[in-house]
Amino acid sequence: MATIYKNKIKNIGSEVSAFEGEPMFILFGDNAPDTLKDFCYTVDIQPVSETIEVGHTVGIDGNEYKITAIGNVAEQNLVSLGHVTIVFDGSTEASLPGSIYVESLEVPKLSIGSEILIKK
To answer: What are the residue ranges spanned by the domains of the chain?
Structure first.
């Protein structure tokens, strides 16, 4: 599988635990609005080398999760803002435009230095 996106967590918002028990996490670049910054994992803004598609995988610290749906602005937000919500509920229809949906599996624990990949 070829990697089309690669990033690392560089900061953890003080309120990310508010989403504990929810099947999701939020990534955002350094420019996250103050109202969201504390709820996000901060990443650098990185390019995507090819279009993200259903069937690709999100890799997190060596674990892989198949993409099941993609919101219509998810890739654009990821590239321009470093912003995307990864939802672990297996949805095949994207109900939130800025989200990437993956298999319904346990949400991984992220830490500073955790690697996020998207592979085709």
So the answer is: 3-119
